Amino acid sequence: MTTAPPIPRAVWIASGVMALGGFLGNMDGSIVAVGLESMRLHLGVSLIEIQWVATAFLLGLSAALPLTPWLVRKLGAGRLWLWALAAFLLTSIACALAPDAGTLIAFRALQGMATGVMVTAGQTVIGLAVGPDRLGRTMGTLGLVVGLAPVVGPSVGGFLLAHFSWPVLFWLNLPIGLLAFGLALRYVPRGDRGQPPPVDWPGLALITLGLPLLVYTLTERNALFAAVGAVALAAFVRRSLRVRHPVLDLRLAARPVMGPALASVLLAGAGMFGAVLVLPLWFQVRLGAGPAEAGVLLAPMGLATTVFVLVAGRLTDRHGGGTVSLTGSVVVLAATVPLPWLGPDAPMWLIQVLLVVRGAGLGLSIMPASTAAYASVAAGELGHATALVNIVMRVGGAAGGALCVIVLSRGLTAGPATGFGWAFGVLGAVCALGTAATAWLRHAERTSTVDTTA
């Protein structure tokens, strides 16, 4: 056990501003999800068409991530964050004024791109400001604020839609975003402008094509797009390992700590997003709760995750991300294993205890693994590291969600008990693999000597 060095007040303020931007991006996603039905009715389109409002945002976010490391080196992380926040606010205005569904979908894709750059640049600002020995606490604080967004977003969105039309969901971004922008102008360091190496345009084209197609096919399951995306990504990986200055430095994944950290983040994302899809349906289909009641019953788990992200940050600075993440993974696995055997006659207090424990484990497992990845690289490599972690997290989430939906839909043909039993079995297997990955990460941290001072 080591004594964590203190964090200066200026760093806390800068981290708080970055957290406010992250909160804004997360809240926008959760609020827009609540408003999809209202948008569909007002714009006169089908459910399949309006779902593209959410899908386009995700695809835009994925497409923007690969170029962010180059932009960080070119403009400076803090300066890039300000530009990305400005773009997010402008596209929010454009979405609110969109006259039809097609225009709204197009601006949502641009808003997703701005969000992807903002999230990655914000994490880079924090990493550069605090250094590896203090990263856990600052990332924990960031996670606490950002994690509140999906908890409060649906409630705020429902209240606004009860009194106003759907554009108000995008206008809400302005006061929060302008506050964050004003604070950032005063408190966030801009970062140094540099002369990065030339962009590997063929590599950028390959990943910009392949990554969104991969995310899309994991959620929509289109065989043709899956094949094109797989070929593009394979060509990108091959090229990135051969060129001198790749768009994304995939060689980082071969580092002793970075490799297991990325594996841990991938599986944690798969388990978390898979549960996000399965648990609300479980309450409604298997346990007989209504949609509003299901949301209330799931809230304690989300709050537990949010609180324990802050706890995890402090523990990570003292014990290392691998140890904390392994503890959280074991807790998540222990709370997931009993779920397949719980039916309508199960006591609600037992279900709530398991879900709160699971939420606490999630808070202890995800953030420390990503923090370990950031702490294992030099300052000049941090932009690549943050982009890699965010890409892996989203690919894992899309894969986990798709796998759980496929298994659940096929199992439901034999009845709710079978369908949810299979889905929770998949979640348990993912959690077990995640536990193995975090054990690997803990071992790597204890046996590796990492120089992050370059």
Helix content: over 70%
Structural class: mainly alpha
Look at the structure and name the CATH superfamily of the largest domain.
Answer: MFS general substrate transporter like domains
Distance, first to last CA: 25 Å
GO molecular function: transmembrane transporter activity
Domain Major facilitator superfamily (MFS) profile: 14-446
Membrane topology: Multi-pass membrane protein
Pfam families: MFS_1
Write a compact overview of the structure shown:
With 454 residues, the chain is mostly helical.
How is this structure best described in words?
This protein is mainly α and 454 residues long. It has 3 domains: 1-194, MFS general substrate transporter like domains (Growth Hormone, Chain: A, Up-down Bundle), CATH 1.20.1250; 200-246; 252-454, Growth Hormone, Chain: A. The protein has 17 helices and no strands. The protein has helices spanning 9-43, 47-50, 52-64, 68-75, 77-96, 101-130, 135-163, 168-171, 173-187, 201-220, 223-240, 258-286, 291-319, 321-336, 348-375, 382-411, 416-447. The longest helix is centred in the N-terminal third of the chain and has 35 residues, at 9-43. The protein is globular, with a radius of gyration of 21 Å.
Please give the structural blueprint.
Blueprint: H1 9-43, H2 47-50, H3 52-64, H4 68-75, H5 77-96, H6 101-130, H7 135-163, H8 168-171, H9 173-187, H10 201-220, H11 223-240, H12 258-286, H13 291-319, H14 321-336, H15 348-375, H16 382-411, H17 416-447
Helix pairs in contact: 1-6, 1-7, 1-9, 3-6, 3-10, 4-5, 4-16, 5-6, 5-9, 6-16, 7-13, 7-15, 10-11, 10-16, 12-13, 12-15, 12-16, 12-17, 13-14, 13-15, 14-15, 14-17, 16-17
GO molecular function, one term: transmembrane transporter activity
Protein name: Drug resistance transporter, EmrB/QacA subfamily
GO cellular component, one term: plasma membrane
